[in-house]
Structure formats: structure tokens, C-alpha cells
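Re: folding output
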Amino acid sequence: MRLRIRYLSALRDRAGLREEAVELPEGSRLRELASWLAQSRGLKLPDPLVMATLNGRGWAQLPEGLDTPLAQGDEVALFPVVAGG
């Protein structure tokens, strides 16, 4: 299945890409994507300094967490956590 990964802000610079399509086997879960991101892009997730969303929902908000199943056409966005006062 094909997923779309978007790298935003400083993570775009770190990954060297704005976005890419990633092929994962059918039945993959967020855990497999996180492993792929660590091996291919050096992004270890979960990370308290990185916000990761799946189709607009934060990974931490997903009831199944890293065991959330992925589907063809899903979109993942990665960006640094914004802090300020």
C-alpha cells in the first residue's frame, strides 16, 4: 500500500524532502511506519519534540497507538512541536 509522508518545517530540512510516497506491505501498522522512518530518515518516533499525525489526528490521540492499522492513501505529517509563551 502507498502512504504519503509530509515533512514540515525543520523536519523537512532534516529529511531532505518536502514529501514522499512510501510503500508498505498490506496490513502494516504505525509501528512499521515508525520503524521505516527510523531506518530510512533517522526519525525515531514517538518523540516528544515531533508531532506526528495520521490523516489529521495526532498519533497520541489514536486509541490503538502504534498498533493503528494503515490503509492505502493515508497521509502522515511530521513537524516539530511548537512551544512559546
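--- second protein (sequence, then structure) ---
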Amino acid sequence: MATNTNSPIACKEFENYLKKLFRISNEDIKMLIKDFHSEMKKGLSGYESSLKMIPAFVDRPKGNEKGKFIALDLGGTNFRVLEVELDGKGNSSVLAVSKFVITKNAMQGSADQLFDFIAESIKSFMLENSISCDEKIELAFTFSFPVEQTNIAAGTLIVWTKGFTAKGVVGEDVVIILNEALKRKGISNVRVAALANDTVGTLVAKSYTDTSCDIGVILGTGTNACYPEKMSNITKWRGISKKENMIINMEWGNFDKLPITTYDKDIDKASPNIGRQRLEKLVSGMYLGEILRLVVNDLMKRDLIFKDLNTKLFCSSYDFLTEYMSLIEGDDSENLGKIEVFLIEHGIANINMQSKILLKKICNLISTRSARISAAAISAIVMWMDPELKKKHTVGIDGTLFEKYPNYKSVMEEVFVELFNKNAKKISLEPAKDGSGIGAAIIAAVAASSEK
């Protein structure tokens, strides 16, 4: 392969090489679906699998759930408390919402310090919004940390992430700890009715308003999916349940039966979870910009792009964001002026048209691979549930990658046409907002109605 020349021929050679490298063919997709089904079966049976297939202890709502609920959305140093009302007719509304910032002392102190802070925040939210301290209230707890869930309202923290180190929480049931903190703060009328995962919340929130929604997907900084599974297929299940179905949190980001490039290998080697989360590293918004950065660095070393320029934009790991790719690929102007303005703002001037076109094409190769893998994984779930595609399947999707990246949705839909022809219309990709808030409240409503 030609190197150390900025000729159009050399650029075209490398572009063709990249096309082959990032291509996900129809045959690749069919193999992915086959492997996906194999991993699903193993995960549901309790055997070692790259798909964990975690029972969520809840089924989809019927749409008639009704009442007011408090939702606690804890996923990092900033957290939200919401009051959500369900009207029993498939409609939900957020009556009030407050955001709180957890102090460093609470994050890194003891379990009591952290959860007392959270309980105090819930108390101030209730006072501020005139929520009765006498009436019984169900609380839905979205806890976005690695948890081994053992019941609809029970889950043990496996490990802290995102800078949290509060002692006395790992290995303990976070619902019990929160309930005890609420009692200490004199909030005796609030009870944690459900522990929720944001992916499951996405499915529940969308299926509350659309009964055909049977897949929930996150396509943002990270990625995951869930769907309702027949209890008879969850052969690792040892409990007793009257439900016919239970939502399964797949943790599909860890699926590892995928072809990878040298750039993907470099990202994996530099990551804190080497050998894990392969699908996430090829698909999610956290990694796409870094893949682009590594490819451009390779081109610069070969003197095929940004000739004679020393730019910091592509120097530091994870400094090139996926939103930059979105801006570049979304530039449809004749002279790619938006790309030029972006590059100038980041210290790269006098860019020739060839470099701008090449940069846009690389963004497209990386994002297209991401969208095709996402669509293939969704297709695998649809085919698992409905092999002959007899029914309509709405896929509720939350995340900025799906919502904001140019043509991401249309590329996914092309895969459905390749696989299912006319039946592709039976799969509908729909935005599903706030599964960690509204979805969690609906899960609490489902749990409350089950108890009754």
C-alpha cells in the first residue's frame, strides 16, 4: 500500500482498504444473528455467555396502571427526583422534577452519609412540591450501577463506578439501605417499590403508551437492550412466578461474536475492561469518536490527510467526540463549509477539499458499521420472539446516537429491508424518552398492582 504521498490515488487506495475493514456485509449480519441466538440461549439457561440475560422481575405494563409515584434517578454525581402521574389510559406526566448534586463527602464517605444525603434531598423535594408526608407513596429507584437484582425491589451492588467509593454499600441491598435512610429522616410514608434499570425503564415507558413496543434499546454514550421473554424459556429461573413473561435485561454491550479491526484492538487494549464490552466498543457514542481519531492518526502518519499540519485535535485519547463526527457527516453544503469552520476552530487551516471529503467518508464508514450492528442485534431479538415476523414490533430507543446522528435511523432500517423485504415495515424504531424517570414510575406501578 502506498505511503508518504498525498496523491489522490494513494488516498483512494487507503479509502478502499477502510471500506473493506469497516464493512458489515449481509452475510456478516446473518452470522451475527445466529451467534446472538446462541448466546441468548446460553444466557437464559445459566451457562457462560457474553449476553448475561438478567431477569428484571417485571413484565410490560398493561397501560391501565394509575396513580402518583416518586422516581429517584441516580446515575452519577447529579441525580433527579421526580413526581410522575399515570392516568390509567396510557398517559403519563411529570408533575415536578428537581436536580441535586451529590457532595464529594457523600460520594466517598459512608453508606449512611450517601443515603442520608439522598433521603434528605427527597424530603426537600416533597416539602417544596407540597407532597403529603401522611399519604402512602411508592418510590421507584433507578440505580445505574452494576447490581445483581434478586427481586423487583431488591438488588445488591456489585461494584461502585463513576467515582463513587462510599463504604458499606458494595455487597449490600441498596433498597434496604435507602429505606433505612428514609426512616432516619422521618419519611415513613415513602417505600421503595421497585429497583429499575434505565434500559428496562425505556421499554416500560414506551410500551405504556404503545402496546406493540416489545424491545427497549439504549443507543447513546453506552448501549443495551431488553425484551419480554417467556418464563418457560428462562430455564435458569429458580423462583416461583405467576407471570407468563418477564423482561430480560440483555446487557448486549458485552456481545463478543463480532469482527474487529486493528483500531478496535487498540481501543480494547487501552480500556480498563480489556476483552469485554466488544459490541459497545464498536457501536456506542463513547467510542466512535475515538475510532475516528485512531484512523485519522494513521492517515496522518501515512501523509494522506492534513499534510504538513501539527494539530492537537487528534492527539489525546477520547478528545475527538462523537458529536464532532455527527457535525462532519451532517455537512451537506457544496464546499463542506461547516467542516472547514470546525477544523479552523480547532487550529487546522488551509484544508484542501480532498481532506474534507475523506474525513466525512471515514465518519460515514464508522457510523454505518455502528448502525448496521445495532440493527442486526435488534433483528436477532425480533426473530427470536417472532421467527415469521407475523406481528408489529415497536422498538423504543433512547439515546443521542439514535436521536441526533445524521441518517443513523435510516441506515438501521436498510438492514431490516435487506433481511425481511416487505415485512421490514413491521419493525418500527421510535424514540422513547426518560425511561429512568417515567419508566421507573411505571415499573413501581406494575409492582404495586402485582402486590394488590
